[in-house]
Every structure is written in C-alpha cells, then in structure tokens.
Amino acid sequence: MTPDRITPSLKRELVLITAWLFFMLVIGMINDSILLFQFIGLLVYVLWNLYNLNQLTSWLATPSKHTPEVIGIWDEVYYQLYQLYKRQRKSRRKLTSILNKFQKSTQALPYATIILNEFNEIEWFNPAASQMFNLHSKIDISQRIDNLIRQPEFSKYLLKKEFSEPLQLLINKKKVVLSITPYGSGQYLISARDITSRSQLDDMRRDFISNASHELRTPLTVISGYIEFLQHKADEATKTPLDKIQQQIERMNKIITELIELARLESSSAIDQTKEVDIATLLDDVYNDALALDKNEHVIELIIDSKESDKQTCSLFGGYEELRIAFSNLLTNAIRYTPAQGNIKLLCSVSDANISISVQDSGPGISYEHIPRLTERFYRVDEGRSSEKGGTGLGLSIVKHILDRHNASIYIQSKVGEGSTFRCDFPILHPGTQLDN
Ligand code: ADP
Description:
The chain is α+β, with helices and mostly antiparallel strands. The protein has helices spanning 8-30, 34-61, 73-108, 127-133, 137-140, 145-148, 152-160, 196-233, 236-267, 279-294, 308-313, 320-337, 383-388, 395-405; strands spanning 112-116, 122-125, 167-171, 174-183, 187-194, 276-277, 299-305, 316-317, 343-350, 354-361, 409-415, 419-427. The strands form 3 sheets. The protein has a 5-stranded antiparallel β-sheet, sandwiched between helices. It starts with 7 loop residues before the first helix and ends in a 10-residue tail after the last strand.
C-alpha cells in the first residue's frame, strides 16, 4: 500500500494502537517488566479484533441498518459495508422491477416466447407458449426443449444452429412458424406464431385464382372458335378488328396459363431433389426452342463452360420440365425485349459452390430501381412495351418460384442501354449434402 492510500480511519487506528502500546510500555516500566506488558498489550489488541471479526460475521449473515457499537477502524468497516449493501439492494429492486415489466409485456404478447439456456433447457416461457406447446411451468422448466417438441425437423433445426430462416411446423393440427434468436452467452429466444388462418386464406386465394382461371378457359375457347369462324367470312372492313380480338384472346389465354402454372407451383409438394437433370440436354432443348421462336432475328449462342471433371461432380437435381420453363421464360424475355440483330447468350459455368446458368442480352437494359421488384406478379418496367410484345408480367415470378423450389437464387444485373444478365445459381450438392425442403 502506498502512503497516500492510507485512509484517515487507518491513521486513527495506528494512533490508537501506538497510544495503547505506549500506555502498556509505561505500565511495564513502572512494574519493571516491559516485554511482558508489551505482550499483554498486543494480546488484548488481537483478542479485541477477533471479537469484532466475530461480530462482523454474524452481522453479515443478516445485514441490517443496526450495526454493532464499535470504535476505531471497525466503525468505518461497518459504514462502508452498509453502504455497499444499500446500493446492492437498490439495484436488485431495480432489476426485479425491470424483470417484472419484461415478464408482464411478454405475457401479454400474442406470440409464444420461450427462453432456453446453452443446453437447450427451458428457462422461462409465456402463457402463449404454454398454450401452443402444452408446457407446464412446474414440470417443464429445466427440461430440454427437444424432449417436449418432439418433431424431427425441429431437432434438426436446433442442432444445425442456422437460424436465419424460420421453421414451419405442424403442432396440435396448427401451422406454426417458429424462429430462434441467439442472445447473451449461449442463450436462445424462441418465438412462435400460429399461422393456420393465414395459411388457410392463402390456400383459398390460390384455389380461387386457379378455379377462376380454369373457368375462364372454356368461354375463351368458345369465343375464339366463333372469332375464327367469323374471320373466314370477314370482309376487308371487319378483318382487322377480328384479328385484334383474336390477339387479345391469345393474350388472355397466356395470362390464364401462367396464372394456373403459378398456382400449381405454389400448391404442389416439394420437388424431388434426387432426380438428376442432364444440364447439356436441358440447355440444348431450351436453346432449340428459342431458335425456333426467334426465327433468326437475333444472334443466339449456347456456351457451356464445363471441364471434364465438372461433368462428373456437378449435376442439377430437380424437375426437368420446371427448369425448362424457367430458362425458356428468361430466353423468351431476352428475345422479346432485345432489338433485332442483338446478341443473346445462354451460358453455363461451374464454380466451387455453384452451377450458374445465365441469360445475357444486349437489349435496352433495366433501370436499377426496378430490379428488386421484377419478380413480383404483374410487375412491368414499361407496361405498354410489355403488352405490345405479348408479355403478361408473370414470367419472372414463375422463374423465381421454380428457382426457390430448387434452392437456387436469381441475380439480375442490368445497365440501361447496354443489356441485362439474369443469372441463376444452383448450389452444388456434394456427396452427403442434405437439402431442406
Ligand atoms: P413480361 O411477361 O411482361 O415480360 P416478366 O415477369 O417476364 O413479364 O418480366 C417483368 C418485366 O421485366 C417485363 O415487363 C420487362 O419490362 C422487364 N424485363 C424482363 N426481362 C427483360 C430483359 N431481358 N430486358 C429488358 N427488360 C426485361
């Protein structure tokens, strides 16, 4: 201890003990026995301190504002300890009040909330969680969550510790979407919400679109038949309007076909990811369809950049027909929007992680603010141009759905006046890789 750290109370204590030993020295000198009286003086001091220590230990067991009557440094010790105890009590009260407020608000939450420790054991849950997962506070606290939510997908999700995407589960005949947020030191916050009615509404919407589209098909076919009949008998004055009606009927037919395709993609079960798709055959078919559609208006190339070793390790897995529709839509767009004599490329390349299939064109390009919205239904950059070219606004939405079903992603790069690239990245499945679907 440096001299400036000697507290005033220790200084007083030093003065006190010096005075006491001096007093014992005088008594020793009077009795001609200095050493004996110095020893007695020190012994009394030690015994007095032991007595105070004993008092302190019993006070610490149940601290209160009534401190024992003491003198010297012990007075200061009790004062400091009592201040510390007061501060601690104050912050404990504050913490309890925060905790109470937190518990009240989470209890009012409509979302089921569960707190887990680093061993996935339940530390706390709110009434909504108790109702959703049938949890009981008396018996389920400290139980492992995967012993209570006994679903293989949930155990896998918990084990994987990859919580960026939420998980959908069927619990007590209810559709539940559950997300996990790590926090603190290895703790997890589970929040889950019942989406049964939302999902029923989605199903109803999908069924309605699909049924309405199917129902519209029959009258359209009848109208189209009559128009064809009238076209045979048409004179110069009525030919053009009849041709225009026929064009619009074809457009409506296309919209209906694409709406039915979208509804099918949304409602059909997960794609069989074990079916291998031969990339070369697939791209060859898409390329030949595009050539037939294009009628030599553009320069269209197919470039497959694949080494011999890639051919053995890389394949696409999923639905041949769906993938064909996706790439055909991208190529049809390129043909539709690129001016005559422009260049269009269908490219395939392989990197360590992905197989990328891109459609590149030298068309008008798309301004950056439209790019994030291109895969929305009926989103068009220029409605007039799209309709005039026979577009429906559904093509890229179908592409996005198909890619999602194949765990693939779409990246759109475009510059106005220079052209666009639509790149589809498929993750390479190494042996033993499992896909979540
Ligand atoms: P559409 O049937 O209208 O082409 P899509 O969903 O396929 O609908 O495309 C959405 C919009 O994106 C189109 O209306 C068009 O404006 C724009 N677009 C798509 N592909 C291209 C492309 N290759 N070049 C320029 N614009 C494009």
